């Protein structure tokens, strides 16, 4: 089977997910690279593997499957160079150091600023408009740039660099190499500038830690971290804004329920994350030791793809799994993964999504899709799935 | 109702603080969970159980 599967439409999951959950929870699929991987689709299996501290998404080992059809195999296949910050003790140290900037308290404090950015972006457009380019993409970039302390006027270049990192099919190897070099040089120059001119931002804070030279963080690790945050904090949230709004407008009674009760916003955001049928490939794991799952034994060296979105529609865990239930509680979806490697920026992503939704409901209560939901087109080739355009009017 | 948290497992997602701020907080320097109230009043049970259910690290245990 070729993977990812074809969807009936951008908002509906491929029929294979339900079939594999029922009949074949450990299946073999072929990636864009031609390499074969093992696909997991059930909630328990996906969650247990993701949370296993022995394994990571780093596929740089020579026997790992390549995901993309470029020579290097794409973002998951690149070696993590000189650092132990991606697994085990090194990862835990790195994670705890970064977590201070993404606590509930820190990201809640950003709400007023995020609201302001959303208002400015909405004020700048007239209907009809594509919500993805007007709001979805610019907002998370402004937010992550402010948090890092990087000027947002380089937005177009960031967009190109993260596309190059996350696109599985579009670029040739030399284009990928050039983008990687430029991005690294850009970040390195910014880190240097922070030393001369520190600000109240994450890069300045981290540069001080590097300068303490106590082994907590090296210069190269800082630059890789900054690049990672910019990319991780950008495409994922941007696409999710478009998908969330499309899902809520596709059946307008959902939008109306939110207009009637703003108290639904947090649980509606969680449900949109759970209901997302467009995560693209899911999250890989390089299983470096023999591993048992659903009664099968996978040999050491297997590359596994965990389909988080299929897991999130598993009827064993979620009642009415194929319905969007705006007040679902509890909602233990794993759109942000699970365990030690689960999304570092999830509190920030939640606050961004909740804030955007609140501002849209206040400013544009008459918001509606300007096309039939079935006509929405998915973005092709990305590690992070999304919808190409969400045309709206009000 | 009694609660315990596993600091070593905590991944700092902040969900518990968002859902039940009366019961949970996070350390400023590394985001690890702080249990403010190990035996919260019954009216907080729904929030506490929700926080435990959605914790991505399964680091919260609730005992009746
Ligand atoms: C809706 C938006 C987002 C989604 C759906 C999402 C999803 C994910 C998922 C599934 C993982 C787990 C990868 C794995 O297990 O290998 C992850 C990791 C990560 N995410 Fe997010 N993310 C989002 C937003 C963000 C934001 C806003 C940031 C930061 C500013 C961010 C930063 C990260 C980082 C640094 C990691 C790696 C964590 C680690 O390895 O410890 N993400 N994300």
TrEMBL record, chain A:
What is this protein's record name? Answer: Cytochrome P450
Q: Which InterPro entries does the UniProt entry name for this protein? A: Cyt_P450 (IPR001128), Cyt_P450_B (IPR002397), Cyt_P450_CS (IPR017972), Cyt_P450_sf (IPR036396)
Q: Name one GO molecular function term.
A: heme binding
Q: Spell out the family assignment given in the record's similarity comment.
A: Belongs to the cytochrome P450 family.
A single Pfam family, by name? p450
Which biological processes are named by the entry's GO terms? antibiotic biosynthetic process
Tell me which cofactor or cofactors this protein depends on: heme
- What keywords sit in the KW lines? Heme, Iron, Metal-binding, Monooxygenase, Oxidoreductase
Q: Which organism is it from?
A: Paractinoplanes tereljensis
From TrEMBL, chain B:
Task: Report the GO molecular function annotations.
Answer: 3 iron, 4 sulfur cluster binding; electron transfer activity; iron ion binding
Cofactor(s) needed for function? [3Fe-4S] cluster
Q: What is this protein called?
A: Ferredoxin
The lineage is: Bacteria, Bacillati, Actinomycetota, Actinomycetes, Micromonosporales
Positions of the 4Fe-4S ferredoxin-type domain: 1-29
Q: Does the keyword Transport apply?
A: yes
Keywords assigned by UniProt, alphabetized = 3Fe-4S, Electron transport, Iron, Iron-sulfur, Metal-binding, Transport
Whichever gene encodes this chain, its name is: fer
| Record bears the keyword Iron | yes
**Known function:** Ferredoxins are iron-sulfur proteins that transfer electrons in a wide variety of metabolic reactions.
One Pfam family hit = Fer4_13
């Amino acid at each position: 089977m070729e993977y990812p599967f074809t969807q009936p439409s951008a908002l509906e999951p491929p029929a294979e997910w339900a079939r594999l959950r029922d009949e074949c929870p450990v299946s073999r699929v072929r990636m864009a690279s031609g390499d074969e991987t093992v696909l997991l689709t059930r909630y328990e299996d996906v969650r247990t593997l993701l949370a296993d501290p022995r394994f990571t998404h780093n596929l740089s080992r020579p026997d790992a499957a390549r995901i993309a059809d470029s020579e290097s195999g794409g973002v998951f296949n690149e070696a993590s160079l000189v650092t132990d910050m991606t697994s085990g003790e090194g990862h835990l140290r790195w994670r705890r150091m970064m977590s201070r900037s993404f606590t509930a308290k820190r990201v809640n404090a950003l709400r007023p600023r995020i609201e302001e950015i959303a208002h400015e972006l909405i004020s700048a457009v007239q209907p009809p408009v594509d919500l993805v380019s007007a709001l979805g993409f610019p907002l998370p970039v402004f937010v992550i740039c402010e948090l890092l302390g990087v000027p947002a006027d380089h937005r177009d270049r960031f967009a190109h660099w993260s596309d190059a990192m996350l696109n599985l099919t579009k670029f040739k190897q030399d284009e990928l190499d050039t983008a990687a070099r430029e991005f690294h040089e850009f970040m390195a120059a910014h880190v240097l500038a922070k030393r001369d001119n520190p600000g109240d931002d994450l890069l300045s804070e981290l540069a001080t830690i590097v300068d303490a030279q106590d082994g907590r963080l090296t210069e190269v690790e800082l630059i890789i971290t900054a690049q990672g945050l910019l990319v991780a904090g950008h495409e994922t949230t941007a696409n999710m804004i478009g998908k969330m709004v499309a899902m809520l407008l596709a059946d307008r009674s959902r939008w109306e329920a939110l207009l009637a009760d703003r108290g639904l916003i947090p649980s509606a955001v969680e449900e949109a994350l759970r209901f997302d049928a467009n995560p693209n490939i899911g999250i890989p794991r390089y299983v470096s030791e023999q591993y048992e799952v659903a009664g099968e034994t996978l040999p050491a060296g297997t590359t596994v793809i965990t389909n988080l979105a299929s897991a999130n529609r598993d009827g064993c865990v979620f009642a009415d799994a194929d319905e969007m239930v705006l007040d679902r509680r509890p909602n233990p979806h794993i759109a942000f993964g699970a365990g030690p490697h689960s999304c570092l920026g999830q509190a920030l992503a939640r606050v961004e999504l909740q804030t955007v939704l609140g501002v849209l409901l206040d400013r544009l209560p008459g918001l509606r899709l300007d096309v039939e939901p079935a006509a929405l087109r998915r973005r092709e080739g990305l590690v992070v799935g999304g919808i190409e355009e969400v045309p709206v009017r009000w | 109702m009694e609660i315990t948290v596993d600091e070593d497992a905590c991944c700092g997602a902040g969900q518990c603080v968002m859902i039940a701020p009366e019961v949970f907080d996070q350390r400023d320097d590394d985001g690890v969970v702080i249990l403010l109230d190990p035996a919260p009043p019954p009216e907080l049970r729904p929030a506490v159980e929700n926080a435990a259910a959605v914790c991505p690290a399964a680091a919260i245990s609730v005992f009746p």
